[in-house]
């Protein structure tokens, strides 16, 4: 988790709330849900607050980001797009992840239009 917070900053990706180990503990959020073929790689992990992580469930990044905006939250769209691009690049280099590839492509198309 420290690596993720150092990489992306200590804020929830879905609501921008500050995360710290005393008041608002960070949780490990899978960008591409595991059931959608998301790998257990650092590139597929983001930090989110417990509330956003629980409420998202298995929703897609673009779908849940849209919902968050509808609820008046301020998602970190640039961080989420950057993470998807980083994951896309990691898959290109390492291969495999056939299920996640088209999912990431379509998510990036939706997010870039938002
Ligand atoms: Zn949050």
Describe the fold and architecture.
This protein is 49% helix and 9% strand. The protein is mainly alpha-helical and 114 residues long. The protein has one domain (2-113): DNA Binding (I), subunit A, CATH 1.10.30. It has a two-stranded antiparallel ribbon. The longest helix has 18 residues, at 77-94. Zinc ion binds at residues 12, 14-15, 17, 48-49, 51-52.
Q: Give the strand order of the largest sheet, numbering strands 1, 2, ... along the chain.
A: 1-2
- Helix-strand topology string: HEEHHHH
CATH topology, which one?
DNA Binding (I), subunit A
How would you name the oligomeric state of the polypeptide chains in this document? Answer: single chain
Q: Domains counted in the coordinates: how many? A: 1
| Major beta-sheet overview | 2 strands, antiparallel
The top-level CATH class is Mainly Alpha
Estimated structural class: mainly alpha
Helix content: 40-55%
Estimate the strand proportion.
5-15%
Outline: globular
- Average pLDDT taken over every residue: 96
Q: What attributes does this structure have?
A:
DNA Binding (I), subunit A, single chain, globular, binds zinc ion, mainly alpha, 114 residues
């Amino acid at each position: 988790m420290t690596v993720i917070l150092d990489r992306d900053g200590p804020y929830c990706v879905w609501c921008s709330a500050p995360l710290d180990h005393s008041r608002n503990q960070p949780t490990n959020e899978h960008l591409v849900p595991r059931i959608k073929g998301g790998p257990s790689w650092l590139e597929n992990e983001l930090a989110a607050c417990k509330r956003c992580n629980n409420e998202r469930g298995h929703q897609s990044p673009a779908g849940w980001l849209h919902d968050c905006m509808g609820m008046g939250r301020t998602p970190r769209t640039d961080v989420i797009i950057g993470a998807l691009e980083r994951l896309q690049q990691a898959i290109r280099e390492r291969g495999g992840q056939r299920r996640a590839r088209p999912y990431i492509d379509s998510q990036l198309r939706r997010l870039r239009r938002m």
